[in-house]
Design brief:
Layout lengths: L4 E5 L3 H13 L4 E5 L3 H9 L5 E3 L2 H5 L4 E4 L6 H8 L8 E4 L5 H10 L5 E3 L1 E3 L20 E4 L7 H13 L3 E4 L2 H24 L11 H6 L7 H10 L1 H23 L3 H20 L8
Parallel strand pairs: 1-2, 1-4, 2-3, 4-5, 5-6, 8-9
Antiparallel strand pairs: 7-8
Length: 288
Amino acid sequence: MYPKRLSILGVGLLGGSIGLACRAAAGDCKIVGYGHRAASLEAALSFGVIDEAHEDPLAAVRGADLVVLCTPVGMFDKLLRRIAGALEAGAVVTDVGSTKRSVVKMAHHILPTSVRFVGSHPMAGSERRGVEFARADLFQNATCLTTPIAQTDAEALELVEGFWKKLGMRIVRLSPQEHDRQLADISHLPHALAAALVMMQDDIAMPLAGKGFLDTTRIAGGDGVLWRDIFHDNRDNVRSSLKRLRRQLDHFLALLERGKSEELAAFLNAAASRREQLLRKKLPEVAD
C-alpha cells in the first residue's frame, strides 16, 4: 500500500526531499505541503516539491492517508494538537525527528485512537536549510530508523517502512529508548563537538582553517533552533555521551603529558581501524 495523498508538514530540506523523492517513486501520489511562511510554500510549488500548499495545517492534513511531521521536534506537540481533530480515521502519521521517546509518547497521547502513529527517523540530511536544497536522491541507500512500541499498529508500521523503502532507504527497528541512547553518541554528540570546535578557535586562527577543519565541523552549520530542541529533548543521554567523551579526551591528554608516544600511536591506530570497520559495515535490515 502506497499513500494516495501525502501531507508534509514542514517543507524544508527534509520535507522537500520527501516530496521530490515521492514524486519520482510514485507519480500518482498527491503531495500536499504545510508551512508557516508563504515564500517557502511558493518556492516548494515552483520546484515541483508539492502539488498543493497550505499555511493552515488542518487544511493540509484533510483527506491525507499519510502525514509526515518535518518541523523541528519542539513544534510537534503544538502541531499534533492542532491537526488531531482534522485527521481522517485510519490515517497514518509519522515523523523525521531525531529524538523518539517524547515524540512517540506525545503522539500516542494526543492523537485519537482512530489515527495510527509510527515513529521514524530517516538518517539523511545536510547542514543546508530550506527547500531550495531539497534532492530527490537524498534518501537513497541511507538508513531509516523506525521505533515501534507495543501499541503500534502492524499495518501502519508496514506502510511507513514500505514508504521509506520506496524512497531508497533500508530499515532498522529500535525501541524509542534505544534510539535516543544510540543517537546521542553517533549524531547528537558529534554536533555538539563540531560546535565546540568552532567556538574554541581564536579569531586569528580561523582564516588558516583548511579542508580538514571544515570537514570536521561541517555539521556545526545546522539550524540552531532545530538542534537546541534535539539537545533539550535528549539531554540525559547527551550528558552521558559528553561525560564518556571527556574520559577519552582526558586519556588522550594524559598520554601527551606523560610522553607516551607508543601508546598514543596505538590509540590513534585503533581509532583509524575502528573507523575503517565502520565504512565496511552494513546495518541489518528488517526483513520484508
